[in-house]
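Researcher: Quick one. two chains, 526 residues in total.
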Amino acid sequence: MDMEPDDGGVASAARLPGPAGLSCGAGDSAEAAVGALYQASALGLIRLAYVMLGDRPSAEDVVQEAFCGLYRQWGRLDGADGALYYVRASVLNGCRSVLRHRAVRRRGLAEQPPAVSAEAVVLGGEEREEVIRALVELPHRQREVLMLRFYCDLSDEQIARVMGIGPSTVRSTAHRALQALGRTLKERS
Amino acid sequence: MTPLEDRVRRAIRDKAGEVPSDAVPPLRLPARRRRSFSLTYRGGGRMGAAARWGWRGWLAPAAAAVLVVAVVVGSEALSRALYGRPVPARAQQAAATVRTEAAAWVATQVSRAAVVSCDPVMCQALEKHGIPARGLHELQPGSPAPLRSDVIVATAAVRAEFGASLTSIYAPGVIASFGSAITRIDIRVIAPHGAAAYRSALRADLAARKKAGAELLVSPRISASATARRQLVAGQVDARLLLTLAELASQQMVSIVAFGDLAPGASPGIPLRYAYLAQASGGHGAGPAAQARQMSGFVHGLRGFFSTARIQTVRLAGHNVVRIEFTAPSVLGVLHP
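Model:
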């Protein structure tokens, strides 16, 4: 089934020819350049973080932090392409950190899973929520590979660059993730 | 693409689509780091060089002093900004929208018996939404911790006033959250005996809710959807609802569609305060509206906290269902007084 890409600009920002302001090391224009990249890709990154975290305030905070980090590191990056890879990796790291923090808090609350309201389940579609729940339960690396592949439409090589692993590791991780996801969904159906 | 991949892709994109395209908050970048002066003593070998530079030897300490003054003045300015300095019209409008949303939620969801702490602007908005002034505790700069309140509306001004102690000591639990970044407003439940005591009470309540939820499912007079069963077993359901459902089941068949609370951004562990009931097979044959009236009469007759239950007919996913709801914040310890 063909689907229109709906990544809010995460994938398309990578394909943009770097605008003048996006050349790294631009000194005072760094603010404008980071702002331009934010305009082009923030929505997609917030959505990416939202799927992984399940709530908007945390997703927005993670993306905001990622761009602040990008701004601080601006002089050390190699071009607009490098900036986008950097910010994507930062968002994934930020999400991982939030999830880890939540897991610690949940352990304090006797392993209670996050509450899912009836309205969200009924209005959002039971099937979709099942898939998202299963996705969230995957190990961090597997979840991130699937998100970058199916939401950002990145190639294995691009995913490898964002995550700092080899392309073959991306392929095997995605394979294992899909197997695990399939098993979980089958068990629950 | 395999059917599973297609399903995953569709689910991810649908879920991502819940974030509307106008939901991107403005970017706030930190001040760019400038080249710093070294404030460390450079050792005896360099003293001669420092002496040769004369007044320049004072440059680093002077710069440090200027930096300290700048930080103090900056903090002051920030504090003033948070307490009412005019902000751009667009940001003001966004803040007003979020404030109205939060005030409407508090007015409909928070118990009228609860005392709500708020900053002056928020208190005004709450009054406009029908909350009487006697139920509001207006916070001013320098106010002591609002431990005599039940709920605090944490706007940017309130967060700036109480800092990290708001979440770590006074009010660790979020029962609803609106907006984002600087316009974010959290509705928090006050922990009068501190965060540790609150978390401990929440844990005990959760254990009791899990047990009671599992017991409800054993009853032959109660049927529940898969979602509702999961919520009951996980202890996600408010104790007052559990007791109400048990009482109702003693009178009639109860069919639970799901539980909810219409509270965006609530912390994990905050119980769901709504129950959606379908017309149970084997019931009295009455429609949802008649069932709602009948249930309401019975539940309110039980007195105590039962009389605070709101029972009405609502539409859920195209069906008429009966909704039983209790106000926020949830009362901990109802099942193990």
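Residues 1-6, 14-27, 110-119 of chain A have pLDDT under 50 and may be disordered.
Researcher: Thanks, that's what I needed.
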